[in-house]
Amino acid sequence: METEASSTDPTIPTHTKAWFYSEHGKPLDILKLHPNWSIPQLKHDQLLIKVVAASLNPVDYKRMHALFKDTDPHLPKIVPGFDVAGVVIKVGSEVVKFKVGDEVYGDINEEGLSNLKSLGTLSEYTIAEEKLLAHKPKNLSFIEAASVPLAMETAYEGLERAEFSAGKSILVLGGAGGVGSFAIQLAKHVYGASKIAATSSSGKLQLLRNLGVDLPIDYTKENFEDLPEKFDVIYDLVGQVDRALKAIKEGGKIVSIVPPGFSPAIFFALTSKGSILEKLRPYFESGQLKPILDPKTPVPFSDVIEAFSYLETSRAVGKIVIHPIP
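That's the Enoyl reductase (ER) domain-containing protein sequence above. Prediction below.
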């Protein structure tokens, strides 16, 4: 195990270039580039990471819009970003899984909507606890790896909470987005779904087919609840629990990540765990699970504001990843 480097070590950075905001609002209005953001002191269970790539998630701009202000203590200054792929620069004294030079990835905020870090991943360097990180699969680039953690872990946790298992059918509402595309792949390749249906707009139906969806549904032309078929599990990523109740089998389960997520649906916010990524690593390395990247990926670090504006249109197909990080 590498020992923790001295704080006076000239090779260990104390400041970082980072995107930040100091008030709530639209990314276009509030995001600014800080040339010299102070890096917090490393705790014993943490790692300092040189960020190679970072992906954007809707939770980032929702946080900017003050949706979590009651549980987010960090204004006046926040560096956004949950997902990271990078190289370990320094390790805390209690870290055992990783050493300096390791290639790692993860979602650095353990709780999805509260206790969020003030130094996120849209920066040259970031800090994360050991338990939130995993070794990057060898066959994934940093760009691909950065697109995975939050969306994949959310997809996995939802399927686990719904007690999804082999032989069950599933309907994914919003199948072409980051979480949806992974939920489909997990249901097919990890859990052994008997049938997969998913909704998307007209232009994304082929993506659904490519992911392994048996029944792609164009939500602009048909209502999924009017189909004769009912499902064992419905994974709601768009906020349609009321309609999902009409399409679930008796005894089936609805899981949702869209607040308020009313009963009987199972509503949850992700708890980030590096162990999930480690568990799924063989599926990535065998090619069964694949990152889905939006055609605009990779986006340069200088274009973060434009990338957020695009993400907010809901037109992205797969994930938007920022790379290179200066």
